[in-house]
Amino acid sequence: MKITLIGNCQIKALTWYIQQLNSDFDVKYIYTDIGMLNFAKQNNFKGRPTPTIINNKEAKSRLTDSDYVIYQPIRPERIKEFNYEDIQKYGAKSRLISVGCFYCKNVNTTTGETKKG
Q1: pTM
Q2: SS3 for the chain, per residue?
Q3: pLDDT tens digit string along 57-88?
């Protein structure tokens, strides 16, 4: 089964988790430039490999060939490529699963500590 995931760092973590469920799954994460700096480009998470696609041509091909595409509905004005409209176009034959994202404005993203106040 070919599973492709697109989104922020939460989806990157989900990529790692899904591949741990069954070693027969072909699971990959597509990097999108949504402000995660170089974290999303890394091919590992928690010290274990997390296959990451950073090439647009390879990513489009992967979406076309996937059985499942799990994605966050990123608006077209936020990113040019791989927003929710692109995903629906490239992944037209795939089973599309949209998941929300979580954001906490009171967490310091550098340290992970919660701000008081």
Answers
A1: 0.77
A2: CEEEEECCHHHHHHHHHHHHHCCCCEEEEECCCCCCCCHHHCCEECCEECCEECCHHHHHHHHHHCCEEEECCCCCCCCCCCCHHHHHHHCCCCEEEECCCCCCCCECCCCCCECCC
A3: 998 899 999 999 999 888 888 777 788 888 88
